[in-house]
Structure formats: C-alpha cells, structure tokens
Amino acid sequence: MIDREQLHRDGYALLRGEIPAEWLGDLRRAFDTGVQPSERWPVPRGADWRHSLLDLDPTVQAVCRLPRLLAAAGALIGERFFLAQVEGREPLPGLGHQGLHRDLSARRPGDTVNALAFLDNYGPHNGATRLVPGSHRPRPDAAPPGEDDESRSTQLAGAAGDILVFDADLVHAGSLNPGNLRRRSLLMGYFAESNYAQHLKTAQLRGIRMDTSERFEA
User: Fold this and answer.
1) Among 65, 83, 212, 217, which residue's Cβ finds the most Cβ atoms within 10 Å?
2) pLDDT tens across 127-137, in order?
C-alpha cells in the first residue's frame, strides 16, 4: 500500500525492494548494452554521466508498470496519466555532482512525476540522490532553492531493486560518485494526460522510441 498522506507531505516515496531480484541481471545487461556516447543522442548529454538507450527493453518496460510505482505516480499526479520516457543514467567515477534544483511541472503543480529505479546498491559511496523533503510546494513568497544550500537536504541509501518516486517540483540533485563503484539507474517520467500533445513535440529530441499511448488511472 502507498501512504498517500506521507507522499503528498514529503513529495516522494522510496519503495524498498520493489523490483523482483530475478529481474536485476537482465536490467543491468539492458543498461550496459544500451549505453550510447553523448554525440549519438539527438541532443548531446551531460559529460558527467553514462546514458543508456533502453526504452524498448521488455524488462525495463515491466519495471515502469510495477503496481506500487504506478499507484504512487498516480497519487501524486491526481488524474489520468502516461509513461512519457525511460532511460538509463549513471554518474561516472569522480563526477556526477549536481546543484540542488527542481525539474518543474509542465502546466500545473503535480502534473509531472519522476522515478529512479536503482540497479545497484546506492549511498554516499557511489553518488546517490540528495533531496529536500517537503520542498515541492513552496510558499508563494519563498526564495528559489540555492544550488549549494544543503541545510535541509538528505542523501538516500539503499539496495538494488529500490525505486524512488517523486514530484518533479521536489528539490533534488545527483551527487558526486567518489570512487569506482557503479550506480546504474532507470530514470522514468510520468505525465498527466493533458500534457500529451506537448510531449509528442519533443519526444524525438529526447530519444524516445517507445509507444507512449497507454494510459493509467490515478
């Protein structure tokens, strides 16, 4: 079950052990097979990260449809929605630090939800995500988040198979991967159905090959 009160209060949920353990080998192989250098993407990607084109892989698609993941995404979005994209990301050794930021909703607060499915154990040792709980609905007079203001941030830690689901307006960031340990993840995006026409205008630029016509109920 999803704790909807906690989800809306904090702006995220960490679903522990959500991916079946027997899927992880196939998901890691899909990630490694799909890695593409920056210049092979329609729009060049950041040099700090390894990027994987894997949205047609059946096990990846199955992860995107796990029941509790869809339930959390639907609870945050609050209306009919669709899976807009999924790709692989991994911070390179000695790289990956991001300043705290929001990805931002498209038309209204809450119409965009992100999810990170972790394919390796994660924590400070390999660049796990930082976030600021409850920062997705700031007061109208609140100052924008400072990229370097870590006073309220917390860094996640957990095991391969966990999934982080969060409102796109939640303040968050990737972290420095200080060593040589891998931290592969699937980055998924879910949009309210009302954003579909706009999504189609940019899908090719984002390297999206999969069918995005399926709809899910909130």
Assistant:
1) 83
2) 999 999 999 99
Q: Is the pLDDT of residue 89 over 90?
A: yes
Is 94:177 a contact under the CB 8 Å cutoff? Answer: yes
Specify the DSSP class assigned to residue 137.
S
46, containing H or E segment: none
Q: With respect to residue 130, please indicate whether it lies within any of the assigned structural domains.
A: yes
* 174 domain residue, yes or no: yes
- The domain that holds 158 is classified in CATH as 2.60.120.620
CA angle (195 as vertex; 103, 70 as ends), nearest 5: 75
Res 175 pLDDT > 80: yes
Locate 209 and state its tokens: 């090959």
The encoded tokens of residue 191 equal 């949009």
The answer to whether 2 touches 74, Cβ cutoff 8 Å, is no
Q: Per the domain annotation, does 105 fall within a domain?
A: yes
Range of the domain at 170: 4-135+148-202
How many structural domains are present in the chain?
A: 1
Q: Render pLDDT for 53-80 as a digit per residue (tens, 0 to 9).
A: 999 999 999 999 999 999 999 999 999 9
170 and 137 Cβ atoms separated by less than 8 Å: no
> Which conformational region is residue 110 in: left (phi greater than 0), alpha (psi within -120 to 50 degrees), or beta?
left
The secondary structure of 71-136 as a DSSP string is HHHHHHH-S-EEEEEEEEEEEPTT------B----SSSTTSEEEEEEESS-BSGGGT--EE-TTTT
